[in-house]
Amino acid sequence: HVQLVESGGGPVQAGGSLRLSCALSGVTWRYCVGWFRQTPGKEREAVATMARSGYITYTDSVKGRFTISRDNAKNMVYLHMTSLKPEDTGVYYCFISAGSWLPPDYWGQGTQVTVS
Q1: What would the pLDDT profile of 14-71 be if each residue is shown by its tens digit?
Q2: Do residues 2 and 25 make contact, with C-beta atoms less than 8 angstroms apart?
Q3: How far apart are CA 71 and CA 73, in angstroms?
Q4: Is the preceding peptide bond at 103 cis, omega within 30 degrees of 0?
Q5: ∠ CA 98-102-107 to the nearest 5 degrees?
Q6: SS (H, E, C) the chain
Q7: CB–CB of 36/93 below 8 Å?
């Protein structure tokens, strides 16, 4: 049974930083991993994606500010967010896919990030 549990969201002032964590369980294969976000009035978008190979992409609006990383030994995925802006406000979802890339196969429940 695959489970993804996010944590680390919350309120933060503009210009601040947050680190989101995603704890994975029940995963026994190599996987693509990443983060989507749902911001008010917009469709859910892929923020950061890390392929099984380690290849990484970021959506343009977060390049240079967000960093995705993973600790395979601990089954953890992280999103380190810096220089946060009000437009980064939204619900952030961790995902994994069994394939080499998108689309996601499993999602976490989401964690709210509010930048003011």
Answers
A1: 999 999 999 999 987 778 999 999 998 889 999 999 998 899 999 999 999 999 999 9
A2: yes
A3: 6
A4: yes
A5: 65
A6: CCEEEEECCEEECCCCCEEEEEEEECCCCCCEEEEEEECCCCCCEEEEEECCCCCEEECHHHCCCEEEEEECCCCEEEEEECCCCHHHCEEEEEEEECCCCCCCCEECCCEEEEEC
A7: yes
Q: Which two tokens stand for residue 46?
A: 């892929």
Cβ burial, residue 96 (10 Å; 0-12/13-18/19+): buried
**What gap in Å lies between CA 33 and CA 27, rounded to an integer?**
12
CA angle 51, 90, 102 (to 5 degrees): 20
- Report d(CA 16, CA 76) in Å as an integer: 23
Give strand pairing partners of 34. 49, 95
- Rounded to an integer, the average pLDDT of 68-87 is 95
Q: Which of 51, 54, 52, 50 is nearest to 66 (CA)?
A: 50
State the pLDDT at residue 105. Answer: 92
